[in-house]
Amino acid sequence: MLQRINRFYTILHFILMLFVCLIVLLTRYVPSQSGLLHSLSTEGGFFEWGSFLISFTTSGLALLVYFQSRGKKIFRKARRRFILLIAIGTYVIAMEEISWGQRILGFKSDDFFSIYNMQKETNLHNLVSGEYLNLVIYSLIYIFFIYLPLAVYFYPKLGSNSPSISGKISIYLPSIHNMLMFCFASGLQAYFLPRTLADTTFLWLAMLLVIFLLLSKKKYRNRFLIFHLALVLFTCIIFATCYEVFDYYNMQYEIREFVIAYAFLYWFFNWTTNLKNKIALQLK
User: Which of 121, 145, 204, 208 would disulfide-bridge 99, Cβ 3.0–4.6 Å?
Assistant: First the structure.
């Protein structure tokens, strides 16, 4: 059942990748559609509302898991607290996306937000420079959802001298499909700028490492995964060749946040489902 859900979810991800590619290509090469990327990914646009809905869904799912896990040994106190933290965190992210209802209700910002908020809206994330906020978010994505999992896939015995550490790492490990979702998100960036050089380097290094992983570790290799990798490479090349439609402050980052949101939901669903499956096995 879980495998079928994952396959369906990944196919939806494929469709989204091709859809975003089409948006970029139309914006770049069809003069009458030159504003398409901006119109779909602007503040309050399609992708920002998508991020809100996915973050809100993740929060609801996390709350459900939190209450269902009460009294179950495998959901230790630390894990339940972590799940509750995810529920609260994703709820805050969802509400920040719509400025805590301001986008819907249309109420005015108070003096504090009117003065210090860069968009003069009632939210916290625009009190900080987007450049620094994105640096923190994307760094965490690269570390915990791409490079650390890659290290474990390359070196399965990592932490084997300490079984408790090894077990704690493996239970949170995203699948390779999940890693590729985050790689696709990272492909949505302004290319060939000094300020994005590190971002681009980390992305393409990650892609090369995934290729090497699939070449060197036959057990991870299958046609579906190879197709996913090829599709991510294709989209990243398209984005790089269409770099003129992107800008350092452009709203393509709203699409990036949207992809990160559903990639995180994919990870959370798999992680908690695997924990529930362990409970079921223990009860047999």
Answer: 121
